[in-house]
């Protein structure tokens, strides 16, 4: 009988151990690198750029972000900064982002002041969608909205959309817009002239019809059907 050859030890367990060691080293190095970057002054915020503002003070916007120059870029909470800026008057939308290696950008979209209503003796400014965003002051160029319940959000939205649809040359002549409800809108112009809209549906067509009828004779126009304006 032949002599049996001794068994050769398997190498797989040793390879597995080696792989685990390498993986552990990689993880440790990644953690160390991340910690160094997180604390490194090389990634400090050096510039905070604010754009899109015309009514707000850029310095006020910058301060409200809570971001400090010298703060590590990785530690900037862009979501929290945006939420804080969004609470400022005039801010409709805002985005805060990192621009590597050292800049934080704040892009603001402001509300478009369209109309103003009285609420408890205080002016409340509405944007083009009828959203109230400013109290206690009346910016230049907004249209007075009267006859409206300031808590009737549908009426506010309809009146603001109607005003926003008017061409600039027509809006500049407008004395006020009467909004009894969302289905009863009347534009009032100087010299006793007015244009009845009804609702704000087909606002672009009604705005064009308003422009046209104001070039004609007649004091009281109805453009609720903009295809067939009528006068009385």
What is the CATH top level name of the largest domain? Alpha Beta
Query: Architecture of the largest domain, CATH level 2?
Result: 3-Layer(aba) Sandwich
Assembly type:
single chain
Low-pLDDT stretches are 24-39
- How much of the residues is beta strand, in percent? 25-35%
Helix content: 25-40%
Largest sheet: 9 strands, mixed
* Quantity of strands, as a count: 12
Report Rg.
Answer: 32 Å
Envelope shape: elongated
Please tell me the total number of domains.
Answer: 2
Distance between the termini: 127 Å
**DSSP summary: helix tally:** 6
How would you describe the overall organization of this protein?
The chain is an alpha/beta fold and 232 residues long. The protein has two domains: 67 residues, Ubiquitin-like (UB roll); 117 residues, Rossmann fold (3-Layer(aba) Sandwich), CATH 3.40.50. The protein is built from six helices and twelve strands. The strands form two sheets. A nine-stranded mixed sheet has the order 6-5-4-7-8-9-10-11-12, covered by helices on one side. Helix 6 links the parallel strand 10 and strand 11. The longest helix has 28 residues. The protein is elongated and about 95 Å long. The termini are far apart. About 7% of the residues have low confidence.
Produce a short descriptive summary.
The chain is α/β, with parallel strands linked by helices and 232 residues long. The chain has six helices and twelve strands.
Keywords for this structure?
single chain, 232 residues, alpha/beta, Ubiquitin-like (UB roll), Rossmann fold, 2 domains, 9-stranded mixed sheet, 27% strand, elongated, cell cycle, POTRA_FtsQ_type, FtsQ_DivIB, cell division, transmembrane helix
């Amino acid at each position: 009988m032949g002599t049996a050859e001794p068994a050769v030890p398997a190498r797989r367990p040793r390879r597995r151990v080696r792989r685990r060691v390498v993986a552990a080293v990689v993880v440790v190095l990644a953690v160390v690198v991340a910690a160094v970057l997180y604390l490194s002054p090389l990634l400090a915020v050096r510039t905070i750029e604010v754009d899109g503002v015309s009514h707000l003070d850029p310095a006020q916007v910058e301060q409200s972000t809570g971001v400090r120059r010298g703060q590590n870029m990785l530690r900037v909470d862009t979501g929290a900064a945006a939420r804080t800026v969004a609470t400022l008057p005039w801010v409709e939308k805002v985005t805060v982002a990192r621009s590597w290696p050292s800049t934080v950008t704040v892009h603001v979209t402001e509300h478009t002041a369209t109309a103003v209503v009285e609420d408890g003796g205080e002016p409340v400014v509405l944007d083009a969608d009828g959203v109230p965003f400013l109290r206690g002051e009346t910016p230049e160029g907004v249209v007075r909205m009267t006859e409206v319940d300031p808590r009737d959000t549908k009426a506010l939205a309809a009146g603001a959309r109607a005003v926003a649809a008017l061409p600039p040359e027509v809006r500049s002549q407008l004395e006020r817009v009467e909004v009894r409800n969302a289905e009863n809108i009347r534009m009032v112009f100087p010299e006793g002239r007015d244009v009845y809209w009804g609702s704000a549906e087909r606002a672009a067509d009604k705005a064009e019809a308003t422009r046209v009828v104001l070039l004609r004779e007649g004091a009281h126009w109805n453009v609720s059907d903009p295809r067939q304006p009528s006068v009385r």
